[in-house]
Amino acid sequence: MKLTLDIWRQEGPNHAGHFETVEVPDAVPQMSILELLDHVNNRYTEENKEPFAFGSDCREGICGTCGLTVNGRPHGAEQNTPACQQRLVNYNDGDHLKIEPMRSAAFPVIRDMVIDRSALDRVMQQGGYVSINAGTAPDADTLHTNHQTAELALDHAACIGCGACVAACPNGAAHLFTGAKLVHLKLSPLGKEERGKRARQMIDDMETNFGPCSLYGECADVCPAGIPLTAVAAINKERARAAFSAKDN
């Protein structure tokens, strides 16, 4: 299949960027978006041209580093699927694809399609931990939790921190990401001690670096981990609980 690509080119965070048009006459429908970029870069290398920089690690939809934007949609056309799993079968012969980094004021471009997601890391640093007693590890059945609660916690722990929710939101909000972390940790038996402190600090940092929630739900539509939109509600719930709780937790 033949594709025309407009790929974002930017030398660094302090340089102006532009789209570079590339014709690909021999794309294969089974290729992923990343494999398509690999194909372009192989040709560029053979022609002694500078290849395009983009994030990539596991290519199994686990690490979240592959995030980019295709035709204005984070990751690509397929719903709830990371870029490394997005196949060209979703496009037609002769299509024109615009490939660029995930856009958000909180995600400065490092080079081409590689972005700095450290703003998400700073949210996690404010409360993404649990308090445990040092020493010998407790027996597995010491802390009891029912199956339903454990499954709900694991569903929210599935967030890979790719930043698609932020890029999809018109306001650049990180409520789905932060809410997923708050739900996951509040349901964990070891995460309850600093629950109130966690909520205050993580939400304060989120609101400092990201925009307000748009209430449209674009974030859940593109999330490759399938984090439910109900995670957003955890922001106000945990904030209110922390404000009215007499204790820190």
TrEMBL record:
Pfam families: Fer2_3, Fer4_7
Keywords assigned: 2Fe-2S, 3Fe-4S, 4Fe-4S, Iron, Iron-sulfur, Metal-binding, Oxidoreductase, Tricarboxylic acid cycle
Transmembrane parts of this sequence: none
Signal peptide location: none
Main enzyme class: oxidoreductase
EC number of the protein: 1.3.5.1
4Fe-4S ferredoxin-type domain span: 150-179
Gene Ontology molecular function, alphabetical: 2 iron, 2 sulfur cluster binding; 3 iron, 4 sulfur cluster binding; 4 iron, 4 sulfur cluster binding; electron transfer activity; metal ion binding; succinate dehydrogenase (quinone) activity
Biological processes per GO annotation: respiratory electron transport chain; tricarboxylic acid cycle
The protein, known as: succinate dehydrogenase
Organism field: Corynebacterium occultum
Lineage: Bacteria, Bacillati, Actinomycetota, Actinomycetes, Mycobacteriales
Gene: frdB
